[in-house]
Fold this protein.
Amino acid sequence: MRARVVPGRVIGGRARVPGDKSIAHRWLILAAAARGVSRLSHLPPALDVRSTAQCLARLCPRARPSLEGWIAKAGGSGERHGFTWDATPKEDLVSELVVEGEGRTALVPASGSLDCGNSGTTMRLLAGLLASAPFTSRLTGDGSLVRRPMDRVAEPLRLMGADVRTTDDHAPIVIRGGRLRGIRFRIPVPSAQVKGAILLAALAAEGETTLTEAAPTRDHTERVLAALGAPLDAREGVVTIGPFAHGPLEGAVPGDVSSAAFLVAAAALTGGAVTIEGVGLNPTRTHFLDVMERMGIRTRARSMGEVMGEPVGDLDVLPCDGLLGTTVGERELPLVIDEVPVLAALACHARGDTSFQGAGELRLKESDRLGGIAEGIRALGGDAGVDGDDLVVGGSGLRGGIAHARGDHRMAMALTVAALAATGPSEVEGTEWAEISFPGFLDTLRSLGAEIEG
């Protein structure tokens, strides 16, 4: 799908974003592995989350009917390029999902492979869940996912006692679970997915597990486990947890703050004001707002309380008078790893250069985002390049042009947002990939005033 973006419109108003994918994956897995009836709402109909639900439906007989019913409802109608999408508002998809779990020991082997689609979170977190299951499971995915590194999660699970085999560091992953033991482990590459997988495995292990992070990462797994009453201690980059059989979950998934980042940028680039309602305000996810503040964007977060340990509130974006370039250092970069594409969209319209240092991990995402961002900005008439593991974006503005999303949802959204402030029209090829994480993304921008054709 190709979208034509016509600049010159001011983006403003009120909006909601889909539920947070990172939280939804974790809550779904824990609900399926719980003893009792969990009630979840505002689950995002994003394709990645549907991949997790589909895999769990094959592993959890008691939960299968409700999970399959939600998947069918979330899928909508119409298939394009292997993606389900439509122009129907997704508000009717936030109805409650009731998941009846029988506990972790009630998991059953799936017939055939578990297809994780495009979702690295699905694959890595399920590996942690299945590490204690006394049967063999095979996890695979699409062409993009099977190119992503998986030994980073396989190695600690092997140390805990699971038989985990990869294909030269890649999927398919074959797991024969069994009796696990707690470990002390330093996670060498900052990864909330790896941390989450080990914590899920640790719930069924004998003895304590202690994890040390090389750099801080999002803490959604720790928060929900603490809310469930797990024996968990988390402080200064060290997490310790003991074995724990948890009960059911109940709550509404907060709005995805990473999705909200694109609306923040759209408003800032066009001089508008936006309020994003009911969004997650977890401090391990909002560091991109600090970077945006350095660039000249003013926001205000208004807390509404917590749900399952996750802070939630409204985010106001105030009119922006202009943007400044900045530097995101190597230690800071893991805190904004998912927001680099949208920060780069802002940077190409800023005064002065912006540098993202030590960004090599971006090569291992859904696409090579490091090279893809630079290529996409240049295709729209801007200035960007890669120097080793550093991404440097010149603040020369965009003239407009034709860019390709490379099959990457964040690239699709970032290029679309960047084009809103170009001096001429732009075309972005592959905008359907936004459905991976933000169903209805283009419609949301249109509702806020954008002129987008296609």
Observations:
- The chain has two domains: 2-18+254-453, 21-251.
